[in-house]
Amino acid sequence: MVIMKAVGLHRYLPIDNPESLLDLQIEKPSASGRDLLVSVKAVGVNPVDYKVRSPKEKVEEAPKVLGWDVAGIVEEIGPDCKLFKPGDEVYYAGDYTRQGGNSEFHLVDERIVGKKPKSLSFGEAAALPLTTITAYEALFDRMNISLNPNENKNKTILIIGAAGGVGSIAIQLAKWAGLTVIGTASRPESIAWSKKLGAVHTINHFEEFVPQLKQLGYEAVQYILCLNTTDKHWVNMTDAIAPQGKICSIVETDGPLNLSLLMYKSATFVWEVMFTRSMFQTEDMIEQHKLLNKVAGLVDSNIIKTTLTERLSPINAEHLRKAHRLLETGKSIGKTVVENF
Q1: What's the Cα-to-Cα distance from 275 to each of 53, 92, 100, 222, 226, rounded to whole Å?
Q2: If you average pLDDT over every residue of the chain, what do you get?
């Protein structure tokens, strides 16, 4: 049995508990089927990490490994692989139903893996996959926004939580598609970050949306992407959405939403969960491979920029606890990445 380093947990504990994330030695896996075995060089940290790790009674007999943002090098391929070969540099967000990527080597289905942007380091690339897939699917699959900028010339999108991980890439993708981007941000540093990435305006998400939009000259917006507290913003969103507009959220609710508020506008509400395709092994899983490759091309053409804002090294429990702690404040800007075992 070959052993590898990993960071994981047995108990679900508050992040200030030193046992919330542990340095571990576990068995190195082997590739089969359409799996790649990837030598992990960098990992990104996302809210899903701390949501999975959040305190609960359950105890894991075998360690649970988190981490759903990886950049690395293909070490080995399964016999049914068609898309990659050993030595390829890759980036991906992985599969919620399997072990995460906070380990020296990681198994992942090749259909949800992309070729790493050539112009980025592993750390810069690891900041992108989960948020890129989420933003891309929300915009172009769930809300069916056209990829033709000419069709979006007079259309506006409001991105709630614009300076966070998903918002940072969503701003860039929406701008690339020709939309006018308005972001929500409440602090000078998050306002500056949002505008740097391409938001034309920002409004404060702690205040009513419609009066602020009207001050900017907008009666309503055609699209809203909600990346923060769906319940809290629901009435503001239904007030601000244009007739026949579309709202997409990635944040679960604490209770039912009053969908009747959208009825007379014939407006659409839709969810985006980037793990859906891998979780249910949908027939179109390979779309995530395609979109990651497309975005890698946009990065290498200098149209999309990495959203990395903080890097820690090496990959260990101490640094991953620090990254979780930062995310749990709700004030992080861009993405935090941990590099190198």
Answers
A1: 17, 12, 12, 26, 17
A2: 97
Instruction: Say yes or no to pLDDT of 330 above 90.
Output: no
Mean pLDDT, residues 208-237 taken together: 97
> Range of 179's domain?
134-271
Q: Is residue 251 part of a domain?
A: yes
- Mean pLDDT across the stretch 276-282? 97
pLDDT in tens, 35-54: 999 999 999 999 999 999 99
CATH classification at residue 310: 3.90.180.10
Q: Is 284 helix (H, G, I), strand (E, B) or coil?
A: coil
Residue 331: pLDDT band (50, 70, 90) is confident
Count of residues in the chain: 341
**193 and 144 share a domain?**
yes
Phi/psi for 151 (5° steps) reads: -80, -10
Read off the pLDDT of residues 120-163 as tens digits, 9 standing for 90 and up: 999 999 999 999 999 999 999 999 999 999 999 999 999 999 99
* Within a domain: 277: no
Give the side-chain half-sphere CA count within 13 A for 152: 23
Q: In terms of domains, do 293 and 208 share one?
A: no
Pairing of strands 89-92, 70-77: antiparallel
Query: Is residue 162 within 8 Å of residue 202, measured between CB atoms?
Result: yes
Which residue, 222, 244, 271, sits at the end of a domain? 271
The pLDDT of 73-83, averaged and rounded, is 98
- Provide the CATH number for the domain around residue 158: 3.40.50.720
User: 110 and 140 share a domain?
Assistant: no
Q: Are residues 168 and 226 in the same domain?
A: yes
β-strand partners of 226: 160, 249
Query: Residues 91-100: pLDDT tens digits?
Result: 999 999 999 9
Whether the Cβ atoms of residue 76 and residue 108 lie closer than 8 Å to each other: no
**Sign of the dihedral defined by the CA atoms of residues 243, 171, 93, 117, in that order:** positive
**How many structural domains does the chain have?**
2
